[in-house]
């Protein structure tokens, strides 16, 4: 029985650090899971190592402030990675990655490889519940099939970021702070099936340059939409459209409401009446725009009026602070003027004292001046003597350099002669091989000795 509980305990632990800087996956869990991974300092990132980690990898708990390129390289074989809820702030995505999920972090910066010639292979990317304000780096991910950016801090977005993602099937940007979605050039995402822009702050939307031949679901719920440039008829495969929670112009809503082509959702029961709005097939709409676009506390911009009120209070506080600083500056200017007058008075007194010293002071000054002149003259003589010695040494160095160059030339000539003679001796020795005569051997030996 005890053995059973021990086995159960071991199987419930995915991984644990074997040392302070090494993490390893347990063989009892699939996929490979690491727990309590703490990498918050640069030293910890430098020292960490991983053993027996396999793909796909899940880091289920811990704290990793920055997922750096260095860390990605230490997980070089991992291309399917899940790193949720680790308090990440920056995230480097390597080109080899194919699937990445990094939700419920604090990511505000996405980093990509500096080498722009490297192609990215990533197909699914989930970055929901972070703090992203810019996603321009995603433009290099042209193999993406699914991209989720819900619940971030995006305020403005260009659809051109996604123009090269020709394999994209799902794109979700729900619950951001988007008030502007622009499209500069025509985008052709022929495989895109679902697009979610719900829960933002969009006032209008231009979809005229969107070529989405496979789009089946478009969610625009819970924005502040009043008008839209373009119609849904350009999306031939469209089946469902989310329109509720907006402030549509009734004429526009009637024009795009085509139950024979696509199905629209409905607003919450009682909303239209509560907000004094009309409806088209239970989707609330506005006949008179002033009722929702005006400055009333219940209007479309009610939160903006609250912000303006706070700004006005801040301006008033700044004005009070400015007046206080102005008074302080005036006080300082008065003090400076007073100090300048005091300094002038001291100068006048000093001048009077100098006049009273008279001839005696002048005599003392003359003696001190003569002493200084003698000191300066001595220093000048010393400097001239040093300059003369320096000139003489420079001349001697030039002469020595000339002699040294001559010696080098002579040495080079002697080495050339030596090489020539050595070659001759070697040749002669080769010719005399096999000749045992005492005279021949003696001649060669004497010649070698003379060379040495």
From TrEMBL:
Alphabetized Pfam families for the sequence: LRR_8
One Gene Ontology cellular component: extracellular space
InterPro entries: Dev_Immune_Receptor (IPR050328), Leu-rich_rpt (IPR001611), Leu-rich_rpt_typical-subtyp (IPR003591), LRR_dom_sf (IPR032675)
UniProt KW Repeat keyword: yes
Coiled coil: 308-356
Signal peptide region: 1-15
Start and end residues of each stretch annotated as Disordered: 429-452
Keywords linked to the UniProt accession: Coiled coil, Leucine-rich repeat, Repeat, Signal
Name under which the protein is recorded: Putative membrane glycoprotein lig-1
Species for this entry: Psorophora albipes
